[in-house]
Amino acid sequence: MARSIWSGYINFGLVSVPVGLYSATEEHELDFHQFQRGTSDRIRYKRVNERTGREVDYDKIVKGHDVGGGEYVIVEREELEDIAPGKSRSLEISDFVDLDEIDPIHFQKSYYLAPSDSENASSYALLRDALAKTNRAGIATFVMRSKEYLATIRADGKVLVLETMFFADEIRDPAKEVGDLPAKTSGKQLKMATDLIEAMSGKWRPKDYKDSYTERVKKLVESKRKGKEVVFTEEEPEATSSTDLVSALRASVEAARARRAGGGAAKKTAAKKTTAKKSAAKKSATKKTAAKKTTTKKSTTKKSTTKKKAA
To answer: What is the SS3 assignment for 211?
Structure first.
């Protein structure tokens, strides 16, 4: 069993549930070190005093906040710990909300919550089952690694999941970030786009999706290790023009419906038949050409014989 990265209590009403927090996800991309090109020399980062150029030990480093005009307010780590809200290791639930009402843009990172001891496992199970039955999530705040987090606590099967969240003022306004956006659409194009979404809809199966880029990186590294060169070719998509939009949507809907109705297999069979047909046509053409050449040869021989007789 993994070690918890945080431990404390879920508090709701007058109930306290001792829990541990565990990482729920992991990233699987390849790690790369940095080297100077043309050498085997590693590039490393150091904490250096910009005035003296000397390296500084971590325990001698303090934090400073820029207040403008080249002035900094220096704050010690201990001072940050002293004022940290929730120092008592508390996950304080203030509200329960409908899980479906939370915009996913607020979610940041997922963690598992587990009971800290067997004696209090029943209170953990009670909260989990009540959340599942009501489709609610508890909204809580807690402090981890000198930072306060907003979080949701929800049920997922047998486990409670904590999602750290962005505060409202941390969500950027799309109008300020991306500028003017297109007006609402309607009519035939919207109907066809809706039909396409319906035709491409299915059940959410996470295992169906793979990280193909990481696989390519692995293949690249392995090939270079063996002294081989790998060339990946992929066509860059082109934007569909407004004049071609309707026909592109129509073709997409038909293709999606065909796939869902088993048309994928039919397409492969059709492609196979077409290939066979082309192959047969090619063979037939080859035969005809060969026959033509034979006839020409015979004709030439006949002409030669006639010439000899005349002589």
So the answer is: coil
Rounded to an integer, the average pLDDT of 171-193 is: 89
Question: 87-138, pLDDT tens digit by residue?
Answer: 558 899 999 999 999 999 999 999 999 999 888 899 999 999 999 999 999 9
How many other CB atoms are found less than 10 A from the CB of residue 192?
Answer: 18
Distance, in Å, from the CA atom of 214 to the CA atom of 253, rounded to the nearest integer, reads: 31
In CATH, the architecture of 6-33+58-170 is Beta Barrel (2.40)
Q: Could you give the CA distance from residue 51 to residue 73 in angstroms, rounded to a whole number?
A: 19
Decide if pLDDT at 283 tops 70. no
pLDDT at 302 over 80: no
d(CA 166, CA 102): 12
To the question of pTM greater than 0.90 for the whole model, the response is no
Domain boundaries, the chain: 6-33+58-170, 184-201+245-263
Separation CA 80–CA 191 (nearest Å): 56
**How many residues can be counted in the chain?**
311
Alpha-carbon torsion (65, 66, 72, 73), positive or negative: negative
